[in-house]
Amino acid sequence: MDINKKTLSIAIMSGKGGVGKTNISLNLAYALYELNNSAILMDCDLGLANLDVLLGVTPEKNLQDLLEPDIQAKDVVVSLESPNLDFLPAATGVPELANWDSDIQSVLLEKLNDFFQNYKYLLLDLGAGINNTVTILATMTHLKCVVITPEPTSLTDSYALIKILSSQRNVKDFLIIVNMVKNKREGEQAFKRLQMACEHFLGIKITLLGIILRDSAVTKAVLSQTPLCKLEPNSKAYKNIKKIALKINKISATIPSPINSALNIYLLNQK
Ligand SMILES: Nc1ncnc2c1ncn2[C@@H]1O[C@H](COP(=O)(O)OP(=O)(O)O)[C@@H](O)[C@H]1O
Ligand SMILES: [Mg+2]
User: In CATH terms, is domain 8-255 a member of 3.90.1150.10?
Assistant: First the structure.
């Protein structure tokens, strides 16, 4: 293993569902790839896995198959762009996976962690709200992105998510993406409201990572099961996502010491 290699892991999460996590993870993975990075996109929404639907692919195997001793990550992974852009599908409706217990965690993560080192970026599309899987994976990743929309329910639910992760897991460094806004100002205002609540009640400073406009091109991409970046590469929403990818590239360049593990697995045992 090349110890100078850095894999930066990015968790995409949210308080409530339907805010755009899956579309953002998918297009962000493509945008990072278009900037000449290798990337792997992992479906971690173990209850409602749907990245495969948005990609229009039918994977032969998924995360659950990895629990078999002779199945390795390379047997499960689906190539999106060859080489360097891959997808790791999840199983839908598998109760034992929806809430990882510690045995499943160690089997899966130990098999995956070395494999992840083949990529510059690891993107995790997490389920909405708080469950065991979200808590574990959010704690182990380098960048913790919370997707919000300007809706009041999104703000209260993301505040609750941040509160739980910060108080129970000591996660303090949240990056916020505001999605489905009518203009930049609406996005900034939504961010400010969440920022004030987090600072005032939790003593946490959150950072605005990007703003994505509400754009009918996203709906079109969902309906045609084709990634937005392929269907409408010049759409406003994809341009907004490309800007976020550039920022992430900048962030990764400023991380001083080599990252030797895609996921901080040692944190698993810190309950
Ligand atoms: N920027 C956007 N503009 C318009 N519609 C969007 C945008 N982002 C997401 N959507 C819509 O919201 C729906 C939910 O998005 P999805 O990515 O599945 O959310 P989540 O993964 O958070 O549940 C999608 O069907 C899509 O049509
Ligand atoms: Mg989703």
Answer: no
